[in-house]
Amino acid sequence: MKIGELAKRTGATVETIRYYEKENLLPEPTRSQGNYRLYREEHIERLQFILHCRTLDMTLEEVRVLLQYWDTPDKNCGEVNILLDEHIDAVEKRMKELVQLKQHLLDLRQKCAKEAPAESCGILHALADNSYHLSSG
Fold first, then answer.
1. Which tens digits make up the pLDDT trace of 72-86?
2. Is the distance from CB of 58 to CB of 67 less than 8 angstroms?
């Protein structure tokens, strides 16, 4: 199948597929006589694996490690467990950061309770005040 069909079957964009090829996450496809990329079922499976990892917010480096295990199914998967535990920790850290961000935005929102001319907007003044972020973070 050509790249457009692979994109349609996986939901990836053509640009994403080319990027994953460039990053050596997808094996280089064979070429037709007209120099079109020709993909096989294994490309679909591998691309779906990559896309699923990305929906879990895994980095390309994490995906690369997971693919090494995918490619060597007899290898012990202890490192996969460690990688996922580290990713879970990173997600938990990010969740805490997002809670702090939300609180910061809520605090900022309280700076301007009603419509007023922009020159007197408390939110804009607080955003311009470098000490506000430092003292409220």
1. 999 999 999 999 999
2. no
